[in-house]
Specification:
Layout lengths: L7 E7 L7 E4 L15 H10 L3 H18 L3 H16 L7 H10 L1 E4 L5 E9 L10 E11 L3 E11 L5 E3 L10 E6 L2 E5 L10 E2 L9 E11 L5 E10 L4 E7 L5 E6 L11 E2 L8 E5 L6 E6 L7 E6 L9 E4 L4 E3 L2 E9 L5 E8 L7 E5 L19 E2 L4 E3 L2 E8 L3 E8 H6 L1 E3 L1
Antiparallel strand pairs: 1-27, 2-3, 4-5, 5-6, 6-7, 6-10, 8-9, 9-14, 11-12, 12-13, 13-14, 15-16, 16-17, 17-18, 19-21, 20-21, 21-22, 22-23, 23-28, 24-26, 25-26, 26-27
Helix pairs in contact: 1-4, 2-4, 3-4
Amino acid sequence: MKAADVFTTLDIELKPDPSRTVIRPFSFDYPDGFADNRPARMKQVADRLLALSPAMRKRMRMLLAKPMHERHRNADETFLRRYDEVAASLDLPTTIDSTDRLLLGAYYSQEYAFESAALFNPSIIRVPDADPDDDKLPFLLSLRGIGEGHISSVTFRTGTWDGSDRIEVAPASEHGIPPRIDREHEGWTRLLCNDSDDVSETVLFPVLPSQRSGIEDLRLVNFTDDDGARSVIGTYTAYDGMNARAELLRGVDMRTVEMRALTGRMAAYKGMALFPRRIDGQFVMLGRQDNENIWLLRSDTLENWENGERIMGPKYPWEFVQMGNCGSPIEIDEGWLVFTHGVGLIRGYSIGACLLDKQDPSKVLFRTASPLLFPSAEQRGGYVPNITYSCGALLHGRRILLPYAIGDEYSAFAIGNVDDLLSVMVPA
């Protein structure tokens, strides 16, 4: 068997949908040099609105209600909450009625099509608390959506897979619901997503300063700690427009999410992925700290990452430029199965794999000499051409479900067998 024959691609594809929108905060002020001796620009909008007649303001609310109620289940609550967020800082009146508060909240909000340009770089895990041996395994899929301004957000889907050559992905809700910042504690920012009726409604768009220009490439893992406690943990790249750094997400229980920055000299880089359990009492991650090789990182804590070592580098033409992981390692009888990406000619991204030693994952036992999935002739276009990429795979028995992105634009799925994959690997 050839490496390119290990996986069977499915007909199902997930493509960006510009009709899916979310309401997010909108702030504005004067440019530098034009704000001196003037009231805040947002405050002046409030003054202009409140100077209108009550009849005009009532009519404005009626005109606003129809399109917003059609597209957003909780539009009024979102606008009122937005008013409350800015009222004190802008010294807005506290005695105005709900119509005026709602209108002002709408002026300080914007509708954002979070996946209008792309829906890609998927990661997949079993649904929390699901039985790994369930014949019809329920899964949670995360996807990176790109909207206006090339800003990345994270959205979700659910589905089931029985290990066969077909899967079922639940249709996405027509609604998008923003999370609410609940509190910050010991470095963690807690987000409430309980306004979502379905996980596909939850949209994690940038809420922290470090994420101003995007939340990118979430890599989820079902983590089991030494005491048996289970949780969902994810690593992602936060981008503020100038700098990228690794951050951590935990507690995806369909209702709450907590986020925080990672610390340590190994944390200011992209593409980190957590192993699904501790090894020798330590947390372990893979990364590409030098933007060329795959690194193994170890830490006594989940938050701080100081130490790492290079374990695997480019060897074959399809990975001469760069290597990295495609999500968290998967534990099988033979060791740790890791899907990798390689960058070759014309910055083309392909997907391969390697096998790490189970007791000492710094030892690479086997690797693929040829890619498993790569941009085909009909898939070389896209938002970013020549890219085939994934942020994680799902194991069911000895079968593998690998969601992957095409051209940084849309997502597809492939299914393969562990034994076939191992058979095409060569000694590292």
